């Protein structure tokens, strides 16, 4: 029987693939307004599925959390993620995307996604793959 965290992890994996495809388009064609919007959207989806996958996995292992911040802290304590502070910063950036749109912020976020957040999301994907296959 497949556990909820395993199902969520598979959806997360697909979202990271979409993020990777968006990053590849940017690499080939450069960053423009449309690619920035696509990148931010792919990031939002991946982040949401990441913290919910963490939450489900932690709950499966007897650790209850309610909010993304609590979940990230517990995931760091449980060695699901390595860089808790950057995950908190990523969460805060994600929160800003849903409440405001400023072109300067979008450009900075795109840079953060390309150079930092995508690496964190890929690392977590590998961790969950190892959990699924281990």
What does this structure look like?
This protein has 134 residues and is an all-alpha fold. It has one domain: Nucleotidyltransferases  domain 2 (Four Helix Bundle (Hemerythrin (Met), subunit A), Up-down Bundle). The protein is 81% helix and 0% strand. The chain is built from five helices and no strands. The radius of gyration is 15 Å and the shape is globular. 31% of the residues are buried. The mean pLDDT is 93.
Condensed summary:
By secondary structure, the chain is mostly helical.
Give the secondary structure arrangement, pairings included.
Layout: H1 4-29, H2 33-60, H3 68-77, H4 84-97, H5 103-133
Query: Termini distance?
Result: 16 Å
CATH architecture: Up-down Bundle
Main beta sheet: none
**Annotated CATH topology:** Four Helix Bundle (Hemerythrin (Met), subunit A)
What is the average per-residue confidence, as pLDDT, rounded to a whole number? Answer: 93
Q: What portion of residues belong to β-strands? A: under 5%
Number of domains: 1
Instruction: Give a count of the beta strands, DSSP E runs of length 2 or more.
Output: 0
- Helix amount, in percent? over 70%
State the CATH superfamily name: Nucleotidyltransferases  domain 2
